[in-house]
Amino acid sequence: MSQVRLRFAPSPTGYLHVGGARTALFNWLLARKQQGKFILRIEDTDVARSTQESVDAILEGMTWLGLDWDEGPFYQSDNFPLYKEHVEKLISAGKAYKCYCSAEELEAKREKALKEGGKPKYDGTCRNLPQGADDGRPYVVRFKAPQEGTTYWNDLIKGKISFENAELDDLIIQRTDGTPTYNFVVVIDDATMGVTTVIRGDDHVNNTPRQILLYEALEATVPQFAHVPMILGADKARLSKRHGATSVMAYRDMGFLPEAMVNYLVRLGWSYGDEEIFSLEDLIQKFSIENVGRSAGVFNPDKLLWLNAHYIKNGDPVRLAGLLVPFLKERGVTDTAGGPELPAVVKTLQERAKTMLELADGALFYYQQELSYDEKGVAKFFNPETPALLRGLFEKLGAVGELTTVAIEGAFKELCEEKGIKLGQVGPAVRLALSGSTASPGIYEMIEVLGLEETGKRLERAIAKLC
RNA sequence: GGUCCCAUCGUCUAGUGGUUAGGACACCGGCCUUUCACGUCGGUAACAGGGGUUCAAGUCCCCUUGGGAUCACCA
User: Fold this and answer.
1) Interface pTM (ipTM) of the complex?
2) Which of residues 369-408 of A touch strand B (CB under 7 A)?
3) Which one of A2, A25, A119, A388 is most buried, by most CB atoms within 10 A?
């Protein structure tokens, strides 16, 4: 059995969106699982709409997700001579012909046919014209498709799909300006690159029979096809900006982790029993194209958020700390050197943050000297007794030696016993003094991370400002 | 309109002729608790409709309905 070769072939007319990312992921997974090759090809035959920025954005997105490629990126714009050569070959074999109908004429015919309820397909005006030398008129080249019989394939996801050839018309494979069109170059490239399995979006199903016919005309091996269903928005319409972000990199900027994105994307349309959590490594083992569902799926931001929270909760604090730095910078914390160790800070926040944005927001107070205190909290938890309690606590803390969670808890207990109060009478005030907020990490954790000196400063600052 | 595809809780899905139709997100309760969370336990909630086939249908077939894709000198 020869090795499988898969490819992801985006057109560089925008960023990498979630639908494209999922398609890329499925291709990558199958290649990795079957120890084949994963090829990246940039479909830039539409020179006018293709941009280098888009290419860069797509590569950045794939890299962020962890999808590496074995070959490429190849650019179709580098292959124009090759395509031309194949066009000539088809013409001389009588499998393609020059068509002199103008775009305007065709458009008019199409509209007329549509208006009369007919099929808007090419009427074959030039199909049987003698193919002599050019007479100087502009022309396109059309593929001479068979007009009878059926074309079918066994789609790896959708099963057998068949079309009547009579429904297909003679598609244009070369434009007036001599450049080739998509349906043609895709076939040439997949054939010459030895692609064995084409996993692509659902919206290509209708192109597939034409492409199969082209493979046959070219006497090339037809690959296997797998058409993955589309991703929809909450209103079941095609996912678009209206539903929220569609760019993969926008999710990074919104504080999502790549492993959450990968996990979410793969589960949208694919499943493995009752399991929900999958790493890329798991997926290489467990993924199979046969278990991809046939129907379109709604993108559910809540579930993505849940997965993100899961990965933050279980992530390595050191790694998360590294990822957090840019988000802290955005919030004005450019240097954490003067404050507590970032990984220690992260540990106190991991269970409380669903995104890196929340993690950054939650970490802010550790690095701020001037806190703004929650007013309602102050009114509720600060009273004339508070300064004495806070100072009493600080004394106890100074006496415990090493500031561990257990020792800190002991200090609180002792204080409460001595003063005959409950934890609730001092805890909230401490929380407010240290974090400025009524919602924060555990008090003991904060003291441990802040250290004795900084804890003392914060208690005194709060007393000075609030009492 | 033609062609093609799709159809289990609100959402993602398991299910491959015999199940109390399972899990997850979300939602609602209980517990845990120094706040917020986490966690944990429990609950509400689905086979689009109609015909067949079969002893038996969410599972197979047909029709209806409803969604979607596509019909470019875009990809």
Assistant:
1) 0.95
2) none
3) A25
